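Structure first, sequence second, as always.
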């Protein structure tokens, strides 16, 4: 993603992207994606100004690298109209992810926590079964670990995003 640093304080970056670089809905997805990065505390995106406000407590260079690596293949065309590769179900997944992020913010905090834990249970179960049967680290084990640690740290937003993103890994694959 193309950007420049407009302002900077310790633990806070204000980035400027070209005007029109992303829509309001894409800005929400960009914020959600960046908030999954280690050290990112909060992201606010403004589609009107092309601004990204990032509060962080991690490595500044890693966060800037994550922003640089973002491109529209990660967040563009979230309506599913012209998604790259025409993968079936991807538009539905992105709409569900965006709807989940928006709906998640509208729920009362105790209900958010409960919903996140309930949605993470199948992921945690798959991870434990995989570890028990295979006896080594695999994608289900690592996914369950990430969600489980987030829940134990009471970071329910991250746990919810991890669960939703890993659920997208179950989309049908197409021959390309």
């Amino acid at each position: 993603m193309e950007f420049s640093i407009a302002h900077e304080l310790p633990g806070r970056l204000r980035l400027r992207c070209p005007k029109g670089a992303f829509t309001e809905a894409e800005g929400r997805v960009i914020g959600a994606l960046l908030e999954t990065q280690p050290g990112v505390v909060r992201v606010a995106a403004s589609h009107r100004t092309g601004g990204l406000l990032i509060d962080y407590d991690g490595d500044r260079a890693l966060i800037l690298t994550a922003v640089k690596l973002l491109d529209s293949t990660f967040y563009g065309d979230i309506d599913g109209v012209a998604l790259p590769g025409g993968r079936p179900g991807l538009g539905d997944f992105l709409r569900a992810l965006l709807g989940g992020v928006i709906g998640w913010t509208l729920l009362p905090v105790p209900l958010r926590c409960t919903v996140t834990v309930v949605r993470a249970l199948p992921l945690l179960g798959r991870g434990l079964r995989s570890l028990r049967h295979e006896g080594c680290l695999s994608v289900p084990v690592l996914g369950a670990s990430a969600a489980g640690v987030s829940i134990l740290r009471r970071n329910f937003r991250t746990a919810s995003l991890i669960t939703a993103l890993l659920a997208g890994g179950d989309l049908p694959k197409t021959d390309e």
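Margin note: Residues 84-170 form one domain.
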